[in-house]
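User: For my dataset I need records formatted as: sequence, then structure tokens, nothing else. Please produce one.
Assistant:
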Amino acid sequence: MNTRVLTSWLMIICPIGMMVMFAGLEPLIMGAAGEGLGPNERVLAGLETFNDKKVAGYFISIFGLLFMVGMISALALLGKSLKGAGAAIGTLSSLIFTAILTIPVVGMGLSFSANQIFADGYKDVAVSLELISDSAFMGMPVFWGLGLALLGLGMLLEKRPLPTVLSGLLCLIGIIMFPAALILDDIGFAVFAISIVLVASSGGVLLRQQD
């Protein structure tokens, strides 16, 4: 299996797997804890739910974040693979995606630590750590959008490996992510979901090109 095939499969499987975990299984199994509550009360409700359903909680969190890391890694590999007119911009997008990888890793560590401390009975400390974990993800959409915009632009300049329309859509949705990142409601989630669909579709196109 060469790097391009690996990149293609990661771009197909990981976005779908991540959405299944976080948008499907998490609300179905863990529930939407703390709706209508303040930040501290919402986080406390989430910690209590996680403590009651540890096995499911760890399963969803670990596999969901692994899928997220796989998807981001694939985009970093794709940006690095550009060698022509879009090489410089592609490399820049790859560096941005590589930097983004630290967010889910740090966030997961803080969240797991918060749940362990909560189980030991230190609720105030656990809530503070979980709030920090949540905050770590707040800046991710901005850099995600920047990385996608640069990656799409690099592929537009290089006219490969994706079709021009798909490269343009990636660039456009990346640009839209900037204002959408400040809209923490259904609109922001919808834009993010569209970007996930585009990433998975791009993976399918890249894989078909290998046949």
